[in-house]
Amino acid sequence: MDVSPSTFGPEDDGLVRAFDIHSRITIYLIENLDPAAWRAEPPGGKGRNIAALAAHIHTVHGMWLKASGSTELPIPLNKITVMPDEAIAGLRATSAALSKLIATSLKSGNRVKNFKPDTAAFVGYLIAHDSHHRGQMATLARQVGFPLSRKVNFGLWEWGVR
Fold it and tell me: What is the structure's pLDDT at 3?
């Protein structure tokens, strides 16, 4: 796809919008988790708990911001002590910085530095990565006895209202 400045169009704006909606869905999930699930130990004692998963998403966002040369680097989140409100604030900040990076990359026609093949693939990667961990959060909440409500489960798919 040619994304030179003269060809930046609605589909490119749609990529930015899709990433923004996706980011708000991650925050929606965290806002609607039972607080008791936040640090619950995964079944079998192996793997990340929900707090660590949220911190991991934030860390990966920061890693890509740093790799791309962005000056908007996030404050690290401690996977052991992070609270939901801190994770939400951190994810809002990194998501806004990534959204700006995506828009700038699309408008300039340059790919995101250190990511191949192109900006659309970068957006796909971020959405796939974060959604994988969102699924882990929802599954883990259910496994430790704090399943998401039916309303929240359906709300994760309501892209038109997020």
Answer: 38
